[in-house]
């Protein structure tokens, strides 16, 4: 997989292209390209949006796989655990 992306500091939107390659017998047999747009939120922004949509935050976690460490607002990526309120 290869990625080409850019981040707009005004809109906080990251735009990019993912290129996936399937290798078989030492040759690329298939290629897929996907563009994406990701909006980055500040913690208070996303928490307000979650609440507006009927969700209650019950946990905030660091994005390290399998770490199960609680996140704080200074972490670059926060995974939110929510329930429908």
In N-to-C order, the SSE pattern is EEEHEE
Q: Low-confidence segments, ≥5 residues, pLDDT <50?
A: none
Biggest β-sheet strands, sense, barrel? 3 strands, antiparallel
Main-sheet strand order equals 1-2-3
Helix content: 10-25%
Strand percentage lies at over 45%
Helix/strand-derived category reads: mainly beta
Number of domains: 2
Structural summary, described in words:
The chain is mainly beta. The protein folds into two domains: about 1-40; about 40-85, no CATH class. About 10% of the residues lie in helices and about 55% in strands. The protein has one helix at about 45-50; strands at about 1-10, 15-25, 25-40, 55-60, 80-85. The strands form two sheets. It has a three-stranded antiparallel β-sheet, with no helix packed on it. A two-stranded antiparallel ribbon has the order 4-5. Strand 1 (about 1-10) and strand 2 (about 15-25) form a beta hairpin. The longest helix has 10 residues, at about 45-50. The radius of gyration is 17 Å and the shape is elongated. The N and C termini lie far apart (about 40 Å). The model has no long low-confidence stretch (mean pLDDT about 95).
């Amino acid at each position: 997989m290869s990625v080409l992306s850019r981040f707009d500091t005004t809109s906080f939107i990251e735009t990019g292209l993912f290129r996936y390659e399937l290798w078989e017998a030492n040759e690329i047999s298939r290629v897929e390209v996907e563009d994406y747009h990701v909006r980055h939120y500040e913690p208070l922004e996303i928490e307000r949006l979650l609440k507006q949509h009927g969700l209650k935050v019950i946990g905030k976690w660091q994005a390290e796989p399998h770490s199960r460490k609680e996140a704080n607002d200074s972490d670059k990526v926060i995974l939110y655990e929510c329930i429908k309120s």
